[in-house]
Design goal:
Length: 404
């Protein structure tokens, strides 16, 4: 009871402090809010919405059940999650944060995974998508597409390590639970389950598409709110001086890991919001490139409090606990930073030396990294138009639903 009262006082004090800061720094808060809004409007919304809609359609048509039956022999032994986890993993990797949490929550609501399985699944299915890593960070901020390979491999291999580690999560609790373990199924049986799931859903295609659009846009509106909030919060912490105070403690930790203390401010920014952190880290010209990549790999895996708040909001609609996800992000951060250090010499230093000696760029670097740049430019150029069209469509669908 006493701890609950302290928590109430602390939360109320923080809210009052935030409101007072907004009044003291109205201009800076507005500029930070516009930056967050621009990023959501131009990039986040158009890049995530198609994946969210397609995911909803695949679930409604029973394709997820089909994939789950096929991937059960792979996902169960490796990660101790049902085969449907393979679908969440693939969609989370392709579309980026927080798609893995959204799909995991949806599967939990439909009873396709248990609580423990959902907590394992959400721990390793949330990641930044390749387009963001190659297009925004490697090319956009560091102006070096070759870095995308190091960052991406460190990020995704680190997530796999987290999944393998979290297969042991909740073993004691799971012993008292009945889990949905199925034997290896044939393709014919998987197709039968697909048809059964489609009939069980029962919605016409038009209604299914409309529901998919509404659900996806609603989630993205929530995500946009968090992006704007943390953009403002991060700026206020800098203006008030709290970031400078935290930087003193962070610099001690960085020194322990033999990293330059100059990266403490970019590191704190990345802990709150990865895009801003990556931008500030790339601008730290006084530090070695390897140190910048290690720091970027850490907060890219940590996901930032902005994305974690989005995930917490999504998981709050279910019985999936947020604590395992938070612990997984810290572990993922250390895994990704360590793997980036291991991959630095073979995948970057040696390849750069080879390029200088022979005057050529290895195929796996030139083709893969260059392919993401035009896609990223396309999203930046036409993303705002796409967002506007889809929001108008969402308003029309909601209006039509209200009139009925």
């Amino acid at each position: 009871m006493y701890s609950a009262k302290i928590k109430t006082v602390l939360l109320a004090t923080a809210a009052i402090f935030l409101a007072g800061s907004l009044m003291v720094f109205p201009k800076e808060s507005l500029e930070a809010s516009i930056r967050g809004m621009t990023m959501w409007w131009d990039i986040v919304f158009p890049s995530l919405l198609p994946f969210f809609i397609v995911s909803e359609l695949l679930i409604g048509f029973g394709v997820v059940t089909f994939i789950g039956a096929i991937l059960e022999p792979l996902m169960r032994p490796l990660f101790r999650v049902p085969g449907v986890g393979g679908f969440v993993w693939a969609m989370g990797l392709a579309s980026g944060n927080p798609a893995g949490a959204k799909l995991t929550a949806r599967l939990r609501q439909e009873g396709k995974v248990s609580q423990i399985e959902a907590e394992r699944l959400v721990s390793f299915t949330n990641s930044s998508n390749p387009l963001f890593i190659f297009g925004a960070i490697a090319v956009g901020f560091f102006h070096n597409p070759a870095l995308g390979i190091v960052l991406a491999l460190a990020h995704y291999l680190g997530n796999i390590c987290v999944g393998l580690l979290f297969r042991f999560h909740g073993r004691q609790e799971e012993a008292s639970e009945k889990t949905n373990k199925s034997n290896k199924l044939s393709v014919k049986e998987a197709l039968r389950l697909l048809h059964k799931e489609r009939l069980k859903d029962g919605r016409p295609i038009g209604q299914l598409l409309g529901d998919a659009v509404q659900s996806s846009v609603k989630t993205l509106l929530m995500i946009g709110g968090f992006i704007i909030l943390f953009s403002v919060l991060n700026q206020l912490l800098i203006l008030i001086g709290i970031t400078s105070i935290l930087a003193v403690f962070i610099s001690i930790i960085l020194t322990f890991f033999k990293l330059p203390s100059d990266l403490s401010i970019p590191f704190i920014s990345g802990i709150f919001e990865i895009t801003l952190g990556a931008k500030k880290t790339s601008e730290s010209t006084e530090t070695a490139l390897l140190d910048q990549i290690i720091i970027t790999s850490f907060f890219l895996a940590f996901s930032g409090f902005s994305i974690q708040a989005q995930v917490a909001s999504i998981l709050a609609e279910t019985d999936i606990r947020f604590k395992p996800f938070f612990v997984a992000r810290i572990i993922h951060g250390f895994f990704a930073a360590f793997i980036a250090l291991l991959l630095w010499e073979p995948l970057y230093v040696n390849q750069q030396s080879s390029q200088e000696d022979w005057g050529v760029i290895p195929v796996f670097l030139s083709e893969k990294t260059a392919a993401f740049h035009p896609i990223w430019e396309l999203i930046v150029q036409y993303g705002s138009i796409f967002t506007l069209v889809m929001l108008v469509m969402y308003i029309l669908l909601r209006t039509n639903q209200a009139l009925k």
